[in-house]
Specification:
- The chain is an all-alpha fold.
- Helix content is about 55%, strand content about 0%.
- It has one domain.
- The chain is built from three helices and no strands.
- The radius of gyration is 16 Å and the shape is elongated.
Length: about 70
């Protein structure tokens, strides 16, 4: 797993994500680490995977520094 910071703003992390987490029944049991919790979003998941693959490819194909 590669942690990827998508956004940090008080409104996003606390109000939107925190509010979403709070609205889930038994959220204390289902969410282990609240500060970085993110709601399921297929488009965001695809973007994260695509971005991670792009950077991994660039790293693998980079020429060594001399």
């Amino acid at each position: 797993m590669i942690p990827l910071l998508v956004s940090f703003s008080e409104q996003f992390q606390i109000e939107i994500i925190g509010g979403g987490v709070a609205s889930v029944d038994d959220n204390q049991e289902k969410v282990r680490y609240r500060p970085d919790a993110i709601l399921p979003d297929e488009e965001l998941e695809r973007w994260i995977v695509k971005t991670a693959e792009m950077h991994a490819t660039a790293i693998r194909s980079a020429k060594p520094r001399q």
